[in-house]
Design a protein that fits this description.
The complex is a heterodimer of chains A (about 525) and B (about 425).
Chain A (H helix, E strand, L loop, with lengths): L1 H15 L6 H8 L5 H14 L4 H9 L3 E4 L5 E7 L2 E5 L6 E6 L3 E3 L4 H15 L5 H11 L5 H13 L3 H18 L2 H11 L5 H11 L6 H50 L7 H22 L8 H23 L8 H23 L15 E5 L2 E4 H23 L1 H11 L1 H6 L4 H23 L9 H16 L4 H41 L15
Antiparallel strand pairs in A: 1-2, 1-5, 2-3, 3-4, 6-7
Chain B lengths: L1 H23 L6 E7 L7 H20 L7 E7 L5 H14 L4 E4 L3 H13 L4 E3 L12 E3 L8 H9 L8 E7 L2 H16 L7 E6 L7 H11 L5 E6 L5 H10 L9 E3 L4 H4 L11 E4 L8 H14 L8 H20 L4 H8 L3 E3 L5 E4 L5 E3 L2 E5 L5 E6 L4 E2 L8 H4 L2 E3 L6 E4 L10
Parallel strand pairs in B: 1-2, 1-3, 3-4, 4-5, 6-7, 6-8, 8-9, 9-10
Antiparallel strand pairs in B: 10-14, 11-12, 12-13, 13-16, 14-15, 17-18
Helix pairs in contact in B: 1-2, 2-11, 3-4, 11-12
The chains are: A alpha+beta (about 525), B alpha/beta (about 425).
């Protein structure tokens, strides 16, 4: 109805103002008037004109760059630079000089207006000269089913020559026919779409069900198609839960690897482990700020790579200083170690709070880690999760390499297995202790780099992960990296399969109870060390 | 450690007050003490530290104007360290040992519930500046934040309206504690009263500091793909919001398709997020930093001058403290004393021109009449106001949408003299 009125309005303007003969300018002049729904009517009218000048106009409106001058009331495009605006004519693009921040008034848009703009732009861009733009417009058009869109798509399809653009337009046409076609067309479209996993398709089919004008046979066909989609989705959801579980597991693993060294290998109950992660996250923040301040924007996305060695060094140095100044005096007294490291953790938290403030710091995702890849019908694997899974495997691999293949790793294993024997072989055991603790802390720092990409960077960051880290290391078997890996992954996957059924709060409780029961039966965890080292 | 911190703040505040008073009038022998009870460490430090700074600014400002009743004001800052029982201890310390005349403080509802018995037992006065779940009215507390009918209900109304996108399905997502649970109970009853069937409402709770939002965001996505316009009402509190919004952006949920309206996300919380992918998601408050009034410009300039950082933002709870403090100053001037009972009587009907450009009034149920604003997040981390009430709305302590609350009245003047009664008590303030 609204569309019809808009079209009528368009026709009226066309016929009644032959002298003026620029309907686009008339609709544009109406944009500042009235409320959001009036604005949407004007936008729909502009879309029906098919005038390519409307594309930059609507884009400016969507971005909030379309203003009216307070003095003359004239409509301008205002691009902000610093404290002033550069004005251009919204239709011709002619330069109109500068204006102060308070000289113009922005034309307000909300979500409703923005989605009307998106639909109008999709319609207009179907006629673009650039095939890539036409294709993107067709993909966007698939989301909107309206009679105008249907007519627009049919016309565009007839003129289209490029095969892949044509294919995209045909998909969009099916969606438009489903929403706005004749009953026969709608049923045909439903049959074509029945196998699709796309949530947009599911939404369109749902709309048919709640459409009061749809014939019963159309509704029945839609209901059948929805049933088919839902039953096929079950295994897809299970696959998605598995991915989410592995992703959660990789975060648990990253947080726990460092602890697997300091607690697992050295036996230090390190309550300040979480703060090493936090220091890594803050190092990432500092590196990001340095990149922002001193380096060109083109290399900004690489800051995360540069942050890895920095975070490792910062956390490792703090860890070594902690080992030399506190922990080495307490090696045979685990309870005192627990209290002392907890005290250190409070000091580190407050120090960070004093330096950086209590508020969260913003650590931006680099562009290559934003968004996600859609594998099938609406199942999106986000890039930051994929990167973290890969990153965690690399870190684990490197730690295993250091422990198994380097001279330092050999010394470290020797010292932890039999300190007296190692010393009598000429190993400086206190140096090895410091370096081992530094390695564990440094790895925790690296984990902080990754965790800054998915969570908050705040002074309390470490406390969120300390309990989970201990749980993973104890569950996996103290002193065993393979156990840590299996424990992290199984806890992650278990959590994600429980969460939809039990909710996030209860899911965590159930996991914790299961772990406690397991530890009751097998106090040494999944992979208990066998043989003489067990008594050590 | 918290002790040394509080001592330091105490000394700093004292020094600031002295420095300011030295220039204006001779230092009065006696001061009026104002307690500031906000967490400066722990999880809530993120939000509450700013409120402590705002209070110090307001007190310094009042002293520069010549103080109150011819005396200088003195801030007494303590740190309850985001520890709920410690709030009660610190409140008692402020009232009995420091002998403060009024306290401004608390953020979470748990902390308010913890100090409530202390203020009632010792008959002291608390100004609570944060939007909350309602269902409470104590004669010793003035609630300067929004009640549900000044935030949650108008936000839902907006999303149901044509301009808001005519949402038909609802996800109520919150952190698992008293504020979200009560608010969602009220909202669920309200939605059902508007004809929303139960299968179109999804309720979800997560723990404080929840970081892994993959499953819930995927669930929201599936829930919204059923052909009806879906909106998310978020009562997620604290820093769990950052990973929540990041996950929304990464999974490609756009505000045009599934708008998320939040009640606990303001300018300060967005300071930790890159908002370019969140444009169009909403928040409902009684104040936004982007409000274009001369009062607000003066407030922001004053804040920037005090905190010496042009990049710091202002937010709704700060504005609530501005209003509450100004009302208390006016009430003390009218009463001519800081005596709690006298000031309380003088508080009713106090009117203040707020930074949002409206005249807000204190009602006899200890809640304010305030305007409601709904804003959409912009790429620069600010909000653009897309809807506002015609005028101030009276804060309702007891919601009309839960049958057991609808019959209760909160009114601390004769004949009611009661915070939760079905019939008037015809009593006096002191019984």
């Amino acid at each position: 109805m609204r569309l019809f009125l808009a079209t009528l309005l368009g026709l009226l303007v066309l016929t009644s103002l032959p002298a003026h003969a620029d309907p686009l300018a008339d609709f544009t002049a109406n944009l500042p008037k009235g409320g959001y729904s009036d604005r949407i009517v004007q936008i729909e009218a502009i879309a029906t004109l098919g005038d390519p000048r409307a594309i930059p106009l609507l884009e400016a409106l969507g971005k909030g760059e379309l203003h009216t001058r307070k003095d003359s009331g004239a409509l301008v495009t205002a691009r902000r630079e610093g404290r002033e605006y550069f004005l251009t004519d919204p239709l011709s693009g002619a330069d109109l000089g500068k204006a102060g921040r308070r000289d113009t008034k922005k034309i307000k848009v909300n979500n409703g207006v923005r989605s009307a703009i998106a639909e109008a732009l999709a319609q207009l861009k179907l006629a673009s000269a650039d095939p890539a733009i036409r294709r993107a417009a067709a993909e966007e058009a698939a989301k909107y089913g309206s009679p105008t869109m249907l007519a627009r798509l049919r016309a565009a399809l007839e003129a289209e020559q490029v095969p892949d653009v044509k294919a995209a337009m045909q998909t969009a046409l099916i969606a438009a026919e489903l929403a706005a076609g004749t009953p026969a067309e709608r049923i045909a479209a439903i049959d074509r779409l029945a196998g699709s996993f796309d949530p947009a398709v599911r939404a369109l089919l749902g709309q048919v069900l709640s459409d009061a004008n749809a014939q019963p046979e159309v509704k029945a066909a839609a209901a059948k198609a929805i049933d088919k989609i839902e039953s096929q989705r079950a295994w897809l959801d299970a696959g998605l839960a598995l991915f989410q579980g592995i992703s959660l597991g990789s975060i648990l693993l990253l947080a726990a690897i460092g602890l697997a060294i300091t607690f697992g290998v050295m036996g230090v109950i390190n309550m300040a482990h979480g703060e090493m992660i936090m220091l890594g996250a803050y190092s990432t923040f500092v590196v990001q700020e340095v990149f922002r301040a001193f380096l060109p924007a083109s290399v900004f996305d690489l800051y995360l790579i540069a942050a890895i060695p920095v975070a490792f060094m910062v956390a490792a140095l703090v860890g070594m200083a902690m080992e030399r100044s506190v922990i080495r005096f307490l090696y045979s007294r685990p309870l005192e170690t627990l209290l002392a490291t907890w005290g250190v953790s409070l000091i580190l938290q407050q120090a960070v709070r004093s330096i950086f403030g209590a508020t969260n710091q913003e650590v931006a995702n680099p562009n290559w880690m934003s968004g996600g890849v859609e594998i099938i019908g609406g199942v999106i694997l986000t890039y930051n999760r994929l990167c973290i899974i890969a990153f965690c495997l690399i870190v684990l691999g490197l730690v295993v390499l250091v422990l198994r293949k380097t001279h330092f790793g050999l010394e470290m294993r020797a010292v932890t297995q039999n300190r007296g024997m190692a010393r009598s072989m000429g190993i400086d055991s206190s140096r090895v202790d410091a370096l081992t603790f530094g390695l564990g802390s440094g790895v925790a720092g690296i984990a902080g780099v990754a965790l800054s990409q998915v969570g908050n960077v705040s002074p309390n960051l470490g406390q969120l992960y300390i309990v989970d880290s201990f749980m993973v290391v104890v569950f996996g078997g103290v002193g065993n990296l393979a156990g840590t890996f299996v424990a992290a992954m199984s806890l992650g996957v278990l959590n994600k399969f429980l969460e939809p059924a039990a909710g996030a709060v209860l899911g965590k409780v159930v996991v914790l109870v299961l772990v406690i029961l397991f530890i009751q039966r097998r106090p040494r965890g999944l992979f208990a060390l066998k043989g003489r080292s067990e008594e050590a | 450690m918290s002790l040394s911190k509080s001592v330091r703040n105490w000394v700093m505040a004292g020094a600031a007050a002295t420095a300011l008073s030295a220039g204006s009038i001779a230092h009065a022998a006696e001061t009026i003490k104002v307690g500031v009870l906000h967490s400066l460490s722990g999880t809530m430090a993120i939000s509450e530290t700013t409120l402590k700074d705002a209070m110090l600014m307001l007190i310094a400002d009042q002293n520069a104007k010549g103080g109150l009743l011819g005396k200088q004001l003195e801030a007494v800052v303590v740190d309850p360290a985001s520890n709920w029982p410690l709030f009660a201890e610190k409140a008692r310390e402020l009232i009995t040992q420091q002998k403060v005349d009024v306290v401004f403080g608390c953020w979470t509802s748990v902390s308010r519930k913890s100090v409530l018995p202390v203020f009632e037992e010792l008959n002291s006065m608390l100004f609570y500046p944060v939007q909350y779940e309602g269902e409470e009215s104590s004669r010793n507390v003035f609630y300067t934040g929004a009640a549900p009918n000044q935030q949650a209900i108008p936000a839902v109304d907006y999303l149901m309206s044509k301009d808001g996108g005519e949402a038909k399905r609802w996800v109520l997502a919150g952190t698992d504690y008293v504020y979200p649970r009560t608010t969602n109970k009220i909202l669920e009853a309200y939605l059902k009263s508007k004809g929303v069937p139960a299968e179109d409402i999804m309720i979800n709770y997560t723990p404080f500091g929840h970081a892994d939002w993959q499953t819930i965001v995927a669930d929201i996505k599936a829930f919204s793909s059923k052909g009806k316009k879906t909106a998310v009402v978020s009562t997620i509190n604290g820093d769990a919001n950052v990973p929540f919004y990041k996950e929304l952006a990464n999974q490609g949920i756009k505000a045009e398709d599934v708008p998320v309206v939040a009640f606990s996300v303001g300018e300060e919380e967005l300071a930790g997020i890159d908002t370019s992918n969140l444009v169009g998601h909403l928040a409902a408050w009684n104040y936004f930093m982007s409000v274009d009034t001369p009062e607000n410009e003066a407030f922001i300039n004053k804040w920037h001058a005090f905190i010496k950082d042009e990049n710091r933002v202002t937010n709704d709870p700060m504005e609530a403290h501005v209003i509450g403090f100004q009302m208390w100053v006016q009430a003390v001037e009218q009463a001519g004393t800081t005596d709690v009972d006298a000031v309380r009587q003088a508080m009713y009907g106090q009117k203040v021109r707020s930074p949002s450009g409206f005249d807000v009034v204190m009602n006899t149920n200890h809640h304010l009449s305030k305007p409601v604003l709904i804003g959409e997040i912009q790429a620069d981390g600010q909000f653009e106001i897309v809807w506002e009430t015609n005028g101030p709305i009276v804060g309702d302590a007891w919601t009309d949408y839960l049958p057991e609350s609808a019959k209760l009245t909160a009114d601390w003047t004769y004949p009611w003299v009661c915070g939760n009664c079905e019939t008037p008590k015809f009593g006096t303030m002191t019984n």
